[in-house]
Amino acid sequence: MLREGAILARHGYGLLMTERRSSAHPEWQATLGHPEAADLAEAVTWARSQPGVAHVGVLGYSLGGVIAILGAARDERIEAVVAEGGFYDLTADITDSDRQCSILTRLLYSTHPLFFRWETGVDTRSISPIRVIEQISPRPLLLIYGEHEADAGHAWEQYEAAGEPKALWIVPDCGHGGYLQAAPEEWERRVGAFFDGALSEGR
């Protein structure tokens, strides 16, 4: 996300870049979004305490996109959200009834939410962007997916579930990630214009 951050800085935005708990501390348990949304709220609190900061927007990629949606749904201080390539519902994602596999393998997949809760203490049902995405409205939302991941990420379903104002950009000939690399000028134009429109008074 360093290149993305550099572009936003060039557009005049102050940046606070964070990483999730298990990335900063590999010995910590990966919890895939629930506690991390609370961490995002702490980051917003810190950012809002800095001199000259009047508005806060969030950009997140993959799990960061999930955290951005979950966090913004809970925290109205987040005034604009760009979410790139996140999953739409953790329970559905890890059980995935559409997988082509044997009945035994399918049964094993169906137990994953139970093991996840036992290991982390987090109910996978609490990590469901599509269930809460409408709560971001009336704050603006931009969803970004690669053409080759859009179906797996249920991009259109999330877009339909979200309230206005909202936008969905499907990056042509692109998989998971690499949106900026695939379409650098368009990424800067779309994301820059999105934040300029949503946060113009806070730069």
Strand order of the largest sheet: 1-2-3-4
The first-level CATH class name of the largest domain = Alpha Beta
Main sheet makeup: 4 strands, parallel
Give the tally of structural domains. 2
**Could you give the count of β-strands?**
4
Structural class: alpha/beta
Helical fraction: 40-55%
List keywords for this structure.
203 residues, 11 helices, Rossmann fold, 4-stranded parallel beta sheet
Task: Characterise the protein shown here.
The structure is a single chain. With 203 residues, the chain is of the alpha/beta class. It has two domains: 2-89 and 127-202, Rossmann fold, CATH 3.40.50.1820; 90-126, no CATH class. 46% of the residues lie in helices and 12% in strands. The chain has helices at residues 2-10, 21-24, 34-48, 63-74, 90-95, 103-110, 112-120, 129-132, 155-161, 179-182, 184-199; strands at residues 56-61, 78-84, 141-146, 166-171. Strands 1-2-3-4 form a four-stranded parallel sheet, with helices on both faces. Strand 3 (141-146), helix 9 (155-161) and strand 4 (166-171) form a beta-alpha-beta unit. Helix 3 packs across helix 4. The longest helix has 16 residues, at 184-199. It is globular, with a radius of gyration of 17 Å. The chain starts with a helix and ends with a helix. Mean pLDDT is 85; it is low at 103-109.
